[in-house]
Amino acid sequence: MFRLLTAMPGLGYAYAHRLLWSVTLTILLTLLPASATWAASSLGVDNGHLSACPASNNCVVSQNGDSKHAIDAIAYQINRDAAKEILLKVLTVVPRTKVIEQTDNYIHALSKSRIFQFIDDVEFYFPPNESVIHVRSASRVGESDLGVNRRRIEQIRLALRDLNI
């Protein structure tokens, strides 16, 4: 890449670098299938369940997930309000993640990828009569997330376990 940048003598290095990143991003977005685009209607809790994952390999869910998308819910041994508060604190240290919505039994956070700033929706549902947190983490675009959503949820699970919830 350095050779390519230095081969553009009329352009400043910073401008040429930004131009190459823009071209790369444009190519990537062009190659993404239209069917892999995020839909706002797929968020939230409906009849006590988080939405199912799409067919793409960029989502995990703890409720009714098939073998490709299934992940365990996060169990807790303390009261629900305390578990929710601890989860909210954990989310403040998850890189590039921001809570955008919360109710008494639901949390929705956005998590951005480091380089291209792609957005993943991360959801947590606290059912009324269970001591578990159901989870769903899904990329808004693309066919694969290279396991990022699953790793994020497992890291959150480990952090909560370390905090003895």
Tell me what you see in this structure.
It is a single chain. By secondary structure, the chain is an alpha+beta fold. It has 4 helices and 8 strands, in the order ααββββαββββα. The chain has helices at residues 2-6, 13-31, 80-91, 148-162, and strands at residues 45-46, 49-50, 59-61, 74-75, 97-102, 106-112, 119-125, 132-139. Strands 3, 4, 5, 6, 7 and 8 form a 6-stranded antiparallel β-sheet that branches. A two-stranded antiparallel ribbon has the order 1-2. The protein starts with a helix and ends with a helix. Mean pLDDT is 85; it is low at 25-39.
Which keywords apply here?
single chain; 165 residues; alpha+beta; six-stranded antiparallel beta sheet; 22% strand
Biggest pleated sheet: 6 strands, antiparallel
The total of beta strands comes to 8
Straight-line distance between termini: 48 Å
Briefly note the structural class of the backbone. Answer: alpha+beta
Radius of gyration: 19 Å
**Which of globular, elongated, flat, extended, rod-shaped describes the shape?**
globular
| Model regions low in confidence, pLDDT < 50 over at least 5 residues | 25-39
Return the average pLDDT rounded to an integer. 85
What portion of the residues fall into strands of 2 or more residues?
15-25%
SSE order, as H and E? HHEEEEHEEEEH
Number of helix segments?
A: 4
Helicity level, as a percent range? 25-40%
Short description:
This protein has 165 residues and is of the alpha+beta class. The protein has helices at residues 2-6, 13-31, 80-91, 148-162; strands spanning 45-46, 49-50, 59-61, 74-75, 97-102, 106-112, 119-125, 132-139.
